[in-house]
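Late entry, written up from scratch paper. The run itself happened at the end of the previous shift, but nothing got recorded in the book at the time, so transcribing now.
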Amino acid sequence: MKNQNKSKKIFLLYTLISIGFIIFLSVMLLTVLKSRDLPSLYTKDSSKAQRGSIISADNFHIATTIKLYKAVVNTHYIDPQKIELFVELFSIYSGISSKDIKKRLSKRKGVVVLSYNIPEKRAQYLKKLAYELRRYKVFVEKKNPRTGQSTLHGLSVIESGESREYPYGNLMTPIIGYPHKLEENGYTYIKGVKGLEKRFESALGARQDEISQGKRDINGYIILNKESFSKPNINGLDIKLNIPVGLQIRIEKMLDSMKEELEAKQIIIVIMNSTNGKVITMASSNRFLPKSIKRSDYPSLNSAISEYSFEPGSVVKTITFALLLDKGLVNPYDLVNGHNGRFKIGRKVITDEHKFDWLSAENVIVHSSNVGIAQLVQKLSGVELHEGYKSFGFTKKSTNDFIYEKVGSVPSIKRLNNEIYKATSSYGYGMRVNLLQLIRAYSAFNNNGRIITPKIVSNFIDARGQNIPIENEEQIQVIKSSTANRVKKILIKTVNEGTGKKAKIDGLVIGGKTGTAHIVENGEYVNKYNTAFLGFTNDKQNKYTMGVVVVQPESSQFAAQTAVPVYKKAVDIMVEEGYLKPDIVK
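Output as recorded:
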């Protein structure tokens, strides 16, 4: 009986051992067969490419892009005994006040974004800080109660987007334009909305992000070998302008001052090299800060130089006279009856500010006689006048460097066959143009009869610093060279003896034409005016086509008192900056 009980105990023991072994084997088998999240032997790293910059002719970055980073921390992993140390060190490295950091940490537990807008250089400092914080055990491991695994999350500094920066504030706006932000997969991109930012979006935009992937080492870094793969980032192209910052700043300051003096709504100016079309200044008195646009800035967001369409007034007399002269329909010395300043065509009475009995055809331009040009233009047919205005570039885009442009209008051939419409259009009424179109048209008189396309952008620059040229537009011969030179002399006479006297500067060849026009509101002419002065300024080496428009000056309705002084001040600045050298014999 005793032996039997002993045998039973031994059997039971072996049975228990066998059952335990089977359970052990089963657990081991399940562990082996069960899918597990093993640490990846491979890793991937990426970095975003950047938008290109807009650079002035004198190599200043007017618009540029910086990368932004965000700093993220999980409060559960900060050692409570070292929270003050973390706050103080992060404040020093980030430039954010300790008070703000504490406020953000107290608002919520867990993952907290301490800043979204950390510049790249400061982000590098914070990455070093993150390493030091781990080394000094500011962060502690936490055990997951479900998995039993311990994890450690420190300070993370992550690429979050890009920011467009304008180091010179409102310089050259709204020519440059402005961008807006787009978000994609948590990354903030910049895209152009107006101006050069919009027109050259495809060139400025980033081309290719940097990507590296391959096997990783124990620290998580990519092992660079034959099995690894990487492609570099390709940033957007830089855009080089023909406009230098030094000259632009001085011209803009002058416009600001003259706007106040003339009590004008706006003043705009363009200065272009008459030989190659390079625009060296394109400025407005009404500008804005691209990064902080206010409601009051809305009217200034459109570039008045190409998007403000207006009736040009008497500056068109020069174009009309050039068409007559080119067809041999008028001789500069022909006499024209001034009708003592009042001349009736049909039911319309045309008047002059100054009364003339008789004057030469060229003096119609010199003294800006509406009566004179209204009679001379009748020698042109409606077709000739319509096609003539169009040949000078009216109703067409003036440049490829702007995406938005109001091309204006000229009266139809049918209307121009009517002697009244023909007369009023001859001195710039019943048609609409923009300043850049006038600059292009007037370039013919300083360029042997050829109009030239204004060029704001010089070239592109790629990531290797290589220049990518932009093909020049072909110059168009609109009048004979002899005609252009004759008109040029008349415009010089206008400055020396006529309505443009205040533009005269000794030692420089200056010619130009004044223009004043009523403004139309709700289909009717009102007692408001735009004034203009279009012309050229040359020295022995340089030739520039220049134009000024003063929008609604309150101080005077006459271009000689408003637009001409602005033109003169611009030329003075060009002399001081070395763009013009007066030839003065001592």
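The chain has a mean pLDDT of 90.
(Scratch paper discarded after transcription.)
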